TrEMBL record:
PROSITE patterns: SAP_B. Residues 1-20 form the signal peptide. Residues 23-107 form the Saposin B-type domain. It comes from Paramecium primaurelia. Residues 558-581 are annotated as: Disordered. Keywords: Disulfide bond, Glycoprotein, Glycosidase, Hydrolase, Signal. Converts sphingomyelin to ceramide. Belongs to the acid sphingomyelinase family. GO terms for molecular function: hydrolase activity. This is Sphingomyelin phosphodiesterase. It comes from the Eukaryota. InterPro entries: ASMase/PPN1_MPP (IPR041805), Calcineurin-like_PHP (IPR004843), SaposinB_dom (IPR008139), Sphingomy_PDE (IPR011160).
Length: 581
């Protein structure tokens, strides 16, 4: 393929593109030539993918990244996706022919600064949240990263030679003889389904206040972590079973669900440019129809995101695969997949007119998103910071928050990232409950719940599981409010309060110990919602890895309808003149 591309580039230097007829001729020939290359390339697709898999498997095994069976399974799943993404974007006549100047441009670049300035052009002078009313409260329960393991085996090895343990037949990795407990293991293991069943029962009996309006946000990642041996149907089984357990319990509260990156097959991969993955949305929209309602379920099936309104609150739940840097299908085109940002802007405008508070919820928090997408989302949040009163995410398997900054670096919004219900990797099963001012929808406090696994594993299978309140936010971090300015003040105290550093470190690990996080690291983690800003804060040099060199920019197709209409009118005028003669 490379020699054909080089030939085209050399030939392009020899010809002028100033004459329209010449331009048309060469453009047509270029398209034909690229189509020929595509046919040859498609013929060799399987051979190329096979060769790439072979090389990657060899390196993975040689470098001892994982054992050979894991390397082989994971690489076999991912390589075709990566190859297809690169091939679709770069072996395309609308990319190659304008590049070598044999055809006019088909796409124009969408500059980040243009988007940001356009979004912020009518930003209100005052974007500060109002004062808390305090006369009534609502409650929001957040559970994320459930990751039930349908093959969990009590008494199996907690420390094995696979990336996921606590399963029958897996060998011990070293001389640590610790065995998997009945209710779960704070190790490289996922959650037994029976523990999740007890969790739902605990919500009903001990957490949901029948006298308070309560919501449940469920932000995805439901399948076990055996990513090297999965499949489409396999990956959705856990979600179906978890949904049925929730429904059977009849909690009597609105449930706001969304998918995570592990529901996809292969993990992290969702193709927005074809219909190959559309069946996943069909499955989930049908699964959650009782909660979403027919109209919202149909909208979610089509788009992957949705909004639900509850009087003075609107919840926007979006599929974070649209910004996931590990979603290789975005190599085809990362430009606002599904049109979420454009749609969200309209939803925010609508809520602004109604003076309605808005909560965003998704699986992946924006600090882990592709930077161009995260900066655009940050601008959107900045514009509507006055009404965006909450952001709730999972994915990290650890508890912390991210502050959103405006263009001047001032804190203006907050994303709350929750711990996981699964024990993977070395965690205690955790979830949280927010207490929220009913009028303004501003969070007043939250309670972090953790399960004492050692206690209940000792009791055994007859235990009735009760999660303990590990801490409440206000008491744990020494504040009286949860406004952006208050959470920023916490981060400044990290440099003078060693005990505060230990608290954040310990809570990030869901109560299983300390990682040795420094004040500077935590300050940067908490103070940034965009990955590049996090790196700069930590003193790292911003360098591109190989994926960023091949990752395309944002673009849109140039609208030539006006030119076509003008040409059509000229032809008609010429025809009329001839008829008059």
């Amino acid at each position: 393929m490379n020699k054909y591309i080089i030939l085209l580039i050399l030939c392009s230097i020899c010809f002028s593109s100033s004459l329209s007829q010449q331009e048309k001729f060469f453009c047509k020939q270029c398209h034909k030539f690229v189509h020929t290359i595509q046919k040859v390339e498609h013929f060799w697709d399987k051979s190329i993918v096979w060769f790439l898999e072979l090389v990657a498997e060899g390196y993975c095994s040689y470098a001892k990244i994982e054992k050979h069976s894991v390397c082989k399974g994971a690489i076999h799943e991912m390589t075709p996706v990566i190859f297809e993404g690169i091939q679709t974007r770069f072996l395309d006549e609308d990319f190659i022919c304008p590049l070598i100047r044999w055809c006019p441009k088909v796409y124009e670049e969408l500059k980040l600064e243009d988007y940001v300035s356009n979004i912020l052009k009518d930003k209100p002078l005052n974007t500060q949240w109002p004062e808390i009313d305090g006369t009534d409260t609502i409650e929001i329960i957040h559970v994320s990263d459930i990751h039930t393991d349908l093959f969990y085996k009590e008494g199996s090895a907690q420390n094995c030679d696979e990336p996921l343990c606590c399963r029958e037949g897996f060998k011990l990795k070293d001389y640590n003889p610790k065995k998997a407990g009945y209710w779960g293991s704070a190790a490289v293991c996922d959650l037994p389904e029976r523990t999740f069943e007890q969790f739902v029962n605990f919500l009903k009996t001990d957490v949901i206040n029948p006298n308070k309006k309560t919501f449940l946000f469920w932000t995805g990642d439901n399948v076990q972590h055996d990513v090297w041996k999965q499949g489409r149907e396999y990956n959705i089984i856990n979600s179906k079973r978890i949904t049925e357990i929730f429904k059977k319990a009849n909690l009597g509260i609105p449930i706001i669900p969304q998918v995570g990156n592990h529901e996809m097959f292969p993990v992290d991969q969702y193709d927005y440019m074809t219909e190959k993955d559309s069946n996943l949305r069909v499955e989930f929209s049908n699964m959650w129809r009782d909660w979403l309602g027919d109209e919202t379920a149909e909208f979610f099936k089509k788009n992957g995101f949705y909004a639900k309104e509850f009087d003075n609150l609107k919840v926007i739940a979006f599929d974070s695969q649209i910004c996931n840097p590990d979603n290789w299908y975005l190599l085809k085109d990362p430009t606002d997949p599904t049109g979420f940002l454009e749609w969200a802007e309209q939803e925010l405008k609508d809520s602004e007119l109604k003076d309605q508070a808005v909560y965003f919820t998704a699986h992946i928090f924006t600090q882990e998103c592709m930077v161009p997408w995260a900066r655009r989302f940050n601008a959107l949040v900045e514009r509507y910071a006055y009404i965006v009163r909450g952001q709730i995410y999972g994915h990290a398997h650890g508890e912390f928050y991210n502050l959103y900054k405006d263009q001047n670096g001032k804190p203006m919004n907050i994303a709350y990232i929750s711990s996981s219900l699964t024990t993977y990797n070395n965690k205690l099963p955790s979830f949280r409950k927010f207490i929220v001012d009913a009028k303004t929808m501003i969070p007043l406090n939250y309670y972090e719940y953790r399960l004492n696994l050692d206690k209940y594993n000792y009791i055994g299978k007859d235990a009735i599981l009760k999660w303990d309140i590990a801490f409440d936010f206000l008491s744990e971090y020494g504040v009286t409010r949860m406004y952006p300015s208050d959470l920023y003040a916490i981060t400044e105290r990290l440099f003078t309060e060693p005990e505060l550093v230990k608290k954040f470190d310990f809570n990030q690990n869901s109560g299983t110990g300390l990682s040795g996080d420094t004040a500077q690291y935590l300050y940067c983690l908490l103070n940034n919602s965009i990955k590049d800003d996090l790196k700069v804060c930590k003193g790292e040099t911003l360098t591109k890895d190989w994926t960023q060199y091949i990752s395309p920019g944002w673009r849109k197709r140039i609208d030539t309808s006006g030119e076509k209409e003008e040409k059509k009118q000229k032809k008609q005028q010429k025809k009329q003149k001839k008829q008059k003669k």
